[in-house]
Input
Amino acid sequence: MRLAVFVSGNGSNLQCIIDAVQQKMLNEITIDVVIADRDCFAIQRAEQAGIEVMLVTRKSNWADEIYATLKSKQISHIVLAGFLSILNNTICEEWKNKIINLHPSLLPKYGGKGMYGLKVHQEVIKNKETQSGATVHYVTEGVDEGNILMQKTCSVDLNETPDSLQKKVHLLEKEILIESIKVLYAKAQGAD
Ligand code: GRF
Output
């Protein structure tokens, strides 16, 4: 399985995939390119691991450039790991059911445009939710709308802050991300 990982930020989830590949927890899976839509720490993580990086600026033909790179590298699956831009329909269709995104809430709650980072956790606490969690879902053109592949929940405690909740959810994200990549691999082998 040839992965492209899309990033915009810190890249801790990218790091988690890099580590899993290096520790042979993800056999027959390679990260063939990391695509970033802005300068970010995730780029350093990729370079450190010797992975090719493509930095795309959001100009008019950026989707064409991404598409050409994915094709030339024969990418089979795409992981959006903290990627803050939206992929166009051509890419979503061509890699249908082969693109996953990680979201720091129990979708369909707290998803959609503008719902990212600490904002998600602030809203969860404001609404006095007793549970939150992380979701991996398939990517369609709509924001955070594709079918859910995996979720894990955690409690929202009485003295919870957005920061503390974010830390809890980050741990869950890493678990379901690796598990989800294994599911994609199993499906690709026709063994689902
Ligand atoms: C994660 O919380 C993920 O759910 C969201 O963006 C964040 C990325 O974190 N989509 P990182 O860049 O992987 O550290």
User: Anything to note?
Assistant: The chain is about 40% helix and 20% strand. The chain has one domain: 2-191. Residues 162-188 form the longest helix (27 residues).
